[in-house]
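Comment thread on ticket #2218

A.B. wrote:
> Attaching the input chain for the structure job we discussed in standup.
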Amino acid sequence: MTALTAFILCALAVLVGCVLWLIRPLVWARVQASPSRQSLNTAIYQEELAKLKLDLSTGLVAASAFEEAQTELMARYLQDTQAQDQAQPLTTSQSKPARATLWTMVVLLPLSAVCIYLVLGQPMALVRNPEAQGGPNNTPAVTQADIERMVSALADKVAQDPSNLEGLAMLVRSYKALGRMQEAERAYDRSALHLQNNATMLSDYADVAAANAQGVFTGKPQQLIDQALRLDPNDLMGLWLAGTAAFDAKQYPKALAHWERLFKLLPPQSEDAKVIGQAIERVKVQMGLITKP
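C.D. wrote:
> Ran it. Output below, let me know if you need it in another format.
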């Protein structure tokens, strides 16, 4: 059963139930008072509320739209019933106008429900159109041109406000994902003055700068690493880079100190801890503390 079929069956069931509830006095009519105006208002309110709840449960109306429609419906109901209904119950001789009103409601209510759904609901959401879909989650495919436009817009935003570190971090991650490391470093360069108290971003800045220097940490990358660790001696990326820079410079005791400190900060048995453990083992082999198996 498709979503469209299930929705139609549920909607029909609710409509039929509500219509039967309304015409019951006509089918099993007795010589009794007809419902007051307040009763009819209550019935209409319950009918429309049931339809709104159905749309909400099937995902056709957002929660915010449901709350707004429900509030409006309640306000209209309270306004209609605020004045006391002082009219006397209708006698049997007066039942024909009441019956005509009910039959009119029987016809108009389903039509009103359809109109409300067409205004507040999303009919096309139930119709699956494979040609308009870009994947299994009904998400349109994102092209390379779309990504480039988004990155370009983000770059303009960061250029206008270099202190926007959140936007800067997102921009640098985008450049890294696209393999545009030179542009990532230039983005950091433009916001360098605003990174002075952010150890995490200084360490990433050092990583980008070292990658653009073919893995050489001398100079700018090392200065950034030292600055990051002065701000936060337990910065994970900073400790990793500091150990790597010391290892490349054959400063094995210094590399061992940085990596052992890092190892203690990592969750035991984690993948990162395993990698750092292997790095520590390599340093100890170079220092002659252990023999290579």
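A.B. wrote:
> Thanks. Noting for the ticket: Confidence is low (pLDDT under 50) at residues 30-34, 84-95, 130-135.
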